[in-house]
Amino acid sequence: RAVKAHRNAKVVVVGCYAVSDRAEVEAIEGVDLVLGNNEKERLAEVLGNRIAIAPLLQIAPFRRPEPTLGRVRANLKVQTGCDEWCTFCIIPKTRGELRSMDEDRLIEEATARVASGARELVLTGVHLGKYDFDRGGDEHSLVRLLRRLLEIEGVWRLRLSSILCRHLTPAVVSFMQEEPRVCRYLHVPLQSGDDGILAAMHRPYNAAEYIDTIDRVKEAVPDVALATDIIVGFPGETEAAFAATEAMVDRIGFSKLHVFRYSARAGTAAAGMTDEVHPDVKRDRSKRLIARGAALRDRFLRNHLGRPLQVLVEDERVVDGESICSGQTDDYVRVWFSGKALLGRMVDVIADEIRADGLKGRVA
Fold this sequence. Notes:
The protein is built from 12 helices and 14 strands. It is of the alpha/beta class. The chain has a 5-stranded mixed beta barrel. The longest helix is centred in the last third of the chain and has 24 residues. About 4% of the residues have low confidence.
């Protein structure tokens, strides 16, 4: 579709698909070049300096970013690669071994993004909790990076992306507790609440460890919002195993669920497992869990109504003649409200109603 829409464009394919099925991608008519995950950092060099690259394609972590005015929330890729080898996941093969970005270069990149208007930095990585582990570091390396980022003048918020429960160590949790600029939001993948399924997935934790970690986080940061990923219908998942997942979801009370039906991916260990779950059963379990997640999400959002929320304004546009602003709260809720000339500012908003996975409010 991209080739048909842009006949004169140079089409370059990157990412995990380009690694796992390179010959298939190269066979697509109109594809000029296929780059692996290590090669993609050379995208600008490969295309040539005269090729115009859109600001959204700033993928090279070692290159000082061009100013992107108006981008209030910026991603900061600090790590890539994974060594967990979960049986359902192709990433260790396509992204390779753990590789952490140089700390000083990250500070340089973050400083440039803040100078361009970013006020919230989101730390991303395939295995964020293992930042600097490939160079002999430990969880204190991540905390040190967080401290240095917060020393940059103009940083109002730091947000952690997906992080495994066992990397929410006392050092990391204590830093969240003591530093109000670290967002009260964590995405902690669960995948299943059943120990047998977690073992079959080769996840590096069991249900008890997960619960103990979350309980410790909640005690230290009582207002933390918790999102998670769950796979339903993994080979061998019985009704009892699925019930354990439902019980875990109720026990923790997540702010948001991302529910996926298992599908085999070629090249993974799980693709060879024979105890498959019938597609109808997967579909039914998915619907049940999504409904559970929707109820939890509604309860979470309702707890925000009628009280002032600090919203970092990320977008401002005219809708039906009215200037509408939107942004995120500390605990990752999108809020819309009437306002003008507020882009990049922190605004107190009273939420009045729930709308499509977010809130509508008014300036306090």
